[in-house]
Amino acid sequence: MVDSNGVHRETWTLFNRRFGLETTEAMLQFMYGLRNDEIVRAFFGQDLPPAEVAARGAAKERLFRETMVGRVEEFLTPGLRPFLDRHRQAPMAVASNAEPENVWFILNEAALAPYFRAVVDGHQVRRPKPFPDIYLRAAELLSTPPIDCIVFEDSHSGAQAALAAGMRVAGIASTHADLPGAAVTVDSFLDPRLDIWLEAQTRAV
Questions:
Q1: pLDDT tens sequence across 78-119
Q2: Quick check: 12 and 106 in contact, CB under 8 A?
Q3: How far apart (Å, rounded) are the C-alpha atoms in residues 109 and 65?
Q4: Based on the structure, what is the number of domains in the chain?
Q5: pTM here?
Q6: How does strand 150-153 pair with strand 118-121?
Q7: Is the domain of 44 the same as that of 142?
Q8: What percent of the chain has pLDDT over 70?
Q9: What does the alpha-carbon distance between residue 105 and residue 37 come to, in Å, rounded to a whole number?
Q10: CB-based burial label for 35 (10 Å; 0-12, 13-18, 19+)
Q11: Looking at residue 165, which CATH number applies to its domain?
């Protein structure tokens, strides 16, 4: 929904410096699509106590939200709102590895929450992406068989999770130019190929 990778890169870099840790490009590439506890342990050590992992993750995400206040609209993937309007009768869910506070911050700041019948974050399931749990839970809440679900993804771990759940993937190339396993990949929701592909999926059901 949002192309906020640049802001996450910026805030991880600033946050890590509080602990004397300089953030490399490899570290920034690693964090895409992962849950915060996985990122914190990778950056600061696997032996970090769980309470400290949670505290550092929460502090970094507060910094992210402070940076994004009043700016969410400019980071929405182009064409997202008109796309949601065109398909608002379809059962839609958000399924994200992001921290729950961040998910609801984006949905509320951009007034997107009414479009979605379910919201699932990585802490509501035992295993985050790239495991399929989060998407299977979203399908369950929508009362929709996984085979009938279409997932819009911009991360490798997310695409892997959706495919493992038995769902079709539409790739949004905001993070990666290529998403393995995606049935179609577009630059944004403005690409006319997306609606053409969706119409073909509807006819195939």
A1: 999 999 999 999 999 999 988 899 999 999 999 999 999 999
A2: no
A3: 10
A4: 2
A5: 0.82
A6: unpaired
A7: no
A8: 99
A9: 19
A10: buried
A11: 3.40.50.1000
- 175 and 103 share a domain? yes
**b (16+ CB within 10 A) / e for 131-162:** bbbbbbbbbebbebebeebbbbbbbbbbbbbb
Q: Which residues share a beta bridge with 151?
A: 169
Residue 70 φ/ψ region, left for φ over 0, alpha for ψ in the -120 to 50 degree band, beta for the rest: left
CB distance 141 to 93 below 8 Å: yes
CA dihedral 41, 105, 129, 2 (to 10 degrees): -110
As a whole number of Å, the end-to-end CA separation of the chain is: 26
What are the two backbone dihedrals, phi and then psi, of residue 185, each rounded to the nearest 5 degrees?
A: -130, 130
Residue 203 pLDDT > 80, yes or no?
no
